[in-house]
Amino acid sequence: MSLLEVKQVNFSYNSKNFFKGKVQTNNILNEISFVIEEGKCLGLIGTSGAGKSTLGKVILGIQRPQQGKVLFQGYDIYNLNKAIKQKIRRDLQVVFQDSNSAVNPRMTAEQIISEPLENFEKLSIGEKRRMVIELLERVGLSERDLKKYPHQFSGGQLQRINIARAIALQPKLIVLDESVSSLDMVTQSLILQLLSDLKDDFGLSYLFITHDIKAAFSISDQIGVLEKGELIELYDSKDQFFSSKHPIVKRLRESILAEHPRFRTISTKVNWV
Ligand SMILES: Nc1ncnc2c1ncn2[C@@H]1O[C@H](COP(=O)(O)OP(=O)(O)O)[C@@H](O)[C@H]1O
Ligand SMILES: [Mg+2]
């Protein structure tokens, strides 16, 4: 059994036309199917508006698809009893792009990271603090950061805090939606390294959503290309991606090759199987 199975998912937003009063249906995702195995990362790339974030929300149980199924550990996430729902809420976490708006500016790092622990675990104050310190250290921060507020951290540090919160409950799958996209190149590669280490240490799986193909290359075991709501191709190896004849993939490839030669150094670290 795969950790996550997405089966023929169709999703549309219904919006009411202001002038005509009619309901309009915008098809966003068409017949999407793929699996993510335990301990693996699927990179989902595609241009802006392709439907990547919507697909992330469908997988997180936030947007119910009109058709199709999302199975997590074999359970249909839109048809769960209370006990399984609780378990899946622990096992399935998310880190969004904008680290600033993802956190409450009036909460300290300690409060931000303890929140999921308070919701799901019965810990004493001392145990909770010890866990938060361990989590801070695991993401490259320290006890000195406990009492700091979001505005006292850089974008990269704040993203480390978001990652610490996401791993606090030892989840199985993390949806990373443009999680490194707003960071500078150096910070981006440090966070990618952290994510990669956490994946190896905890056997974590990721759905790594990005418009940045280079970032996707550096962490993914498999890559999917989403374009206008269609998952046009899935690749298990770098060679497959580079030899694809699909016109959209050709365009994506040209956009990388046209860029700085720096990409060549990143591509040597690729995780392809
Ligand atoms: N809440 C919403 N209501 C209506 N349309 C939406 C909503 N959210 C996103 N869309 C539309 O769905 C399409 C896909 O958006 P999104 O999933 O955010 O794409 P991506 O993350 O690939 O940039 C876009 O055309 C967007 O305008
Ligand atoms: Mg998006």
TrEMBL record:
Which Pfam families does the UniProt record give? ABC_tran (PF00005)
| Residue ranges of domain ABC transporter in the record | 13-253
Q: Does the keyword Cell cycle apply?
A: no
Give the top-rank taxon of the lineage listed in the UniProt record for this protein: Bacteria
> Which GO molecular function annotations are given, in alphabetical order?
ATP binding
| Nucleotide-binding among keywords | yes
InterPro entries per the UniProt record, alphabetical: AAA+_ATPase (IPR003593), ABC_transp_ATP-bind (IPR050319), ABC_transporter-like_ATP-bd (IPR003439), ABC_transporter-like_CS (IPR017871), Nickel_NikE (IPR014137), P-loop_NTPase (IPR027417)
Keyword annotations for this protein?
ATP-binding, Ion transport, Nickel, Nickel transport, Nucleotide-binding, Transport
**Cited PANTHER family:** ABC TRANSPORTER, ATP-BINDING PROTEIN (PTHR43776:SF8), TRANSPORT ATP-BINDING PROTEIN (PTHR43776)
Q: What is this protein called?
A: Nickel transport system ATP-binding protein
Which organism is the protein's source?
Answer: Rossellomorea pakistanensis
